Amino acid sequence: MASEYLKWKYRDVQPDAPRELTAQERRANWWHYHKWHVGAAVLLALVLGDLGLNAWKTHRDAPDYQAAYVAAKPLPEEAVSALETVLSGLTGGGKVRVNQYLTAQTGDADLYASAANIQLMADLETCESFLF
Length: 132
Fold this sequence. Notes:
The chain is mainly alpha-helical. The chain has helices at 2-9, 23-61, 77-90, 110-126; strands at 65-71, 96-102.
């Protein structure tokens, strides 16, 4: 009985014709529902771009081989350059870096010697240097 009443009550009701939106209204509607997606995509693109750039820079600057110099006194820069050049020639032209680990120092440099020992232990653990 209720359905007959509702049919009679709404017999003349016609749905409104859908209104055509303007281009600006369509863009505003799209932006309202997608602004967080666009923001997340931009943030993701920035993070991935930064990670890719850092990986590229690290790979570009990384030496092919590393050698470790462990002594109480540091080598002069000219000697380090000459040693890197000689080792580069022996390895077939690969880029070589000489890491200097200074130990057995006395006085104010004890802290630096301890830090060098820790760096040397880390180098030994990770097998970064191929020549000591």
